[in-house]
Hints:
By secondary structure, the protein is an alpha+beta fold. The protein has one domain. It is 61% helix and 8% strand. It contains nine helices and six strands; from the N terminus they run αββαβαβββαααααα. The chain has helices spanning 5-18, 41-58, 66-88, 127-130, 133-148, 151-172, 178-218, 226-234, 251-271; strands spanning 25-27, 34-36, 61-62, 101-105, 112-115, 119-123. The chain has a four-stranded mixed β-sheet with strand order 3-4-6-5, with helices on both faces. A hairpin with a 3-residue loop joins β5 (112-115) and β6. The chain is globular, with a radius of gyration of 21 Å.
Amino acid sequence: MKKSFPVFIFGLAAGLIGLGIFIACVTNPLTGKSTMAFVNNSQLFPSSFQQYQEFLGENTVVSGTEEARLVEKVGLRIRGAAEKWLGAEGAGDYLEDYQWEYHLVQDDQVNAWCMPGGKIVVYTGILPVTATEAGLATVMGHEVAHALLNHGQQRMSAGMLQQIGATGLSVLTTDRSAETQALAMTLYGAGSEIFGTLPFSRGHESEADHIGLILMAVAGYNPDESVPFWERMGGLGGGGTPQFLSTHPSHETRIKDLQGWIPEARAKAREFGVSF
């Protein structure tokens, strides 16, 4: 008997509800947008904190140096900016479960990242590219923005949706040949990447650029300095992947977007008595 996809999804949804998994959305106080939240931060954060400590234990954490102190300084200023901004929005309690940490790790990768709940790592390999305190604030503002925007939670939720879709497709093709089933799953995987996961990730990166720029400005760092940083990043080379097949916007797109957002960042900073 052929299976109806809507009937299947309804049955699957009922099963998920029976397991205590609810399709839910939350509204972010910084953007006003509703986003997917299949997993609560109360569940996500403890796992994130544990993984962060495991990572630190397995890598070389730099401490006591001028560079390490700078990472801590910039992190604290960006955090303070987030607290001011959320307080002004009447959402001061939004950060109550966050446990901020900022560590410099010895690694040649030109990278930095943030785990859900405010656990940040900056690799020593990116410091020659940040070059200045404001350049570092560009990076750390971006990473803090990822945490504030709950992008980890959203990506996990998107992954769950993708799995549901794959399961539904598998059920719908059970009466087809093995070759047809394999082709359907291959096409689904490619399509969900190009039209779903990749744009979703690029959207997160752009959103973190936007909110991060405002955070660095409220923290007292000139948002104009974000552009030279991304120009230096672009000068490293190693690109070539078409933007529609990349999880990140191109450097050119980022720079153009940042230039367009700088007046907004300056205006928000002025609300907190900061001007450039």
